[in-house]
């Protein structure tokens, strides 16, 4: 479950990095903001409506809000910083993360919220192994997103334009690609991916502000899988999720545990030393 959910957050990072070359530090907070917005809207829906209608309406409104958020980010944050150094854009996303976290607190409060949209929560006993249906749902959601996004990036005109913008902003502008339009599209998609991740995390452990910290675990996932690879985000997430749990169990008998919090970062450090582009990332060679 942890590995799949890390992957869902990492997908948002990959999307924006592929389109702009910028590491979006705000992706984890976007998942929190989307989940907070969904729960808040569901609380204000009229009483007496069927549960399924309430969920569908709240999801639709939340998707519209995430798209509007993408438009605002492009107009207010990204457009004034076109052709600036990447570190400036990165710092802008860092500031954006604090703005979204504060906005979520002001709009919906800081209490832990229960998110129930009707996802299955029963537990299957398969040969003595207990499997939560929510885990399976998260895996199906992640796999479906990967398939759709892979087709989107490789088979559509907008997907090719996204890759062109990521490669060179000036060259993309010179051939008529609208940088503003591309950024709105990719941030909208990243917002929807963040919503899916927020739903899965929120359904599992409640919607709380510690949800934004999953962005820190997504960084090792990206280093393992590659910052430009959508399948790499999934595989990297599974390696981190499974690895930290297995190592914690076996390490506990030797040194008493406390490995889970830092295992992912040590594994990422090893990858940076021996394969810095990750398992599926592009190895970029530049002439000096």
Structure in words:
The chain is an all-alpha fold. Helices cover 72% and strands 3% of the residues. It has helices at 2-20, 27-43, 51-78, 86-108, 133-155, 157-167, 169-174, 179-205, 214-225, 230-255, 260-274; strands at 123-126, 129-132. It has a two-stranded antiparallel sheet. α2 (27-43) packs across α3 (51-78), α2 packs parallel to α4 and α9 crosses α10 (230-255). The protein starts with a helix and ends in a 14-residue tail after the last helix.
Summarize the structure.
The chain has 288 residues and is an all-alpha fold. It is built from eleven helices and two strands; from the N terminus they run ααααββααααααα.
Task: Set down the secondary structure blueprint.
Elements: H1 2-20, H2 27-43, H3 51-78, H4 86-108, E1 123-126, E2 129-132, H5 133-155, H6 157-167, H7 169-174, H8 179-205, H9 214-225, H10 230-255, H11 260-274
Antiparallel strand pairs: 1-2
Spans where pLDDT lies below 50 across 5 or more residues: none
Total strand segments: 2
Structure class: mainly alpha
How far is it from the N-terminal to the C-terminal residue, by CA?
44 Å
Number of helices: 11
How confident overall, as mean pLDDT? 81
Outline: globular
Spatial strand order of the main sheet = 1-2
Report Rg.
Answer: 19 Å
* H-E string: HHHHEEHHHHHHH
Describe the main β-sheet briefly.
Answer: 2 strands, antiparallel
Helix content: over 70%
Strand residue content:
under 5%
């Amino acid at each position: 479950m942890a590995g799949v959910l890390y992957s869902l957050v990492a997908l948002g990072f990959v999307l924006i990095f592929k389109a702009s070359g910028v590491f979006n530090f705000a992706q984890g907070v976007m998942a929190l903001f989307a989940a907070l917005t969904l729960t808040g809207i569901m609380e204000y829906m009229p009483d007496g409506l069927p549960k399924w209608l309430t969920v569908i309406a709240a999801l639709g409104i939340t998707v519209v809000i995430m798209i509007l958020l993408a438009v605002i980010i492009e107009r207010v944050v990204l457009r004034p910083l076109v052709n600036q150094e990447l570190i400036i854009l990165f710092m802008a996303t860092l500031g954006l993360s604090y703005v979204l976290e504060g906005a979520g607190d002001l709009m919906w409060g800081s209490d832990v919220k229960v998110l129930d949209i009707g996802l299955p929560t029963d537990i299957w006993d398969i040969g003595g192994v207990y499997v939560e249906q929510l885990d399976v749902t998260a895996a199906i959601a992640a796999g479906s997103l990967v398939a759709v996004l892979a087709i989107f990036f490789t088979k559509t005109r907008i997907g090719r334009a996204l890759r062109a913008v990521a490669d060179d902003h000036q060259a993309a502008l010179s051939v008529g690609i609208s940088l503003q339009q591309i950024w709105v599209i990719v941030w909208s998609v990243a917002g929807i991916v963040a919503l899916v991740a927020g739903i899965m995390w929120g359904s599992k452990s409640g919607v709380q502000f510690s949800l934004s910290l999953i962005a820190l675990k997504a960084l090792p996932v990206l280093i393992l899988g590659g910052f430009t690879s959508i399948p790499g985000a999934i595989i990297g997430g599974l390696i981190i999720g499974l690895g930290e749990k297995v190592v914690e169990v076996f390490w506990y008998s030797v040194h008493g545990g406390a490995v889970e919090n830092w295992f992912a970062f040590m594994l990422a450090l090893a990858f940076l030393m021996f394969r810095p582009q990750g398992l599926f990332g592009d190895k970029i060679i530049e002439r000096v």
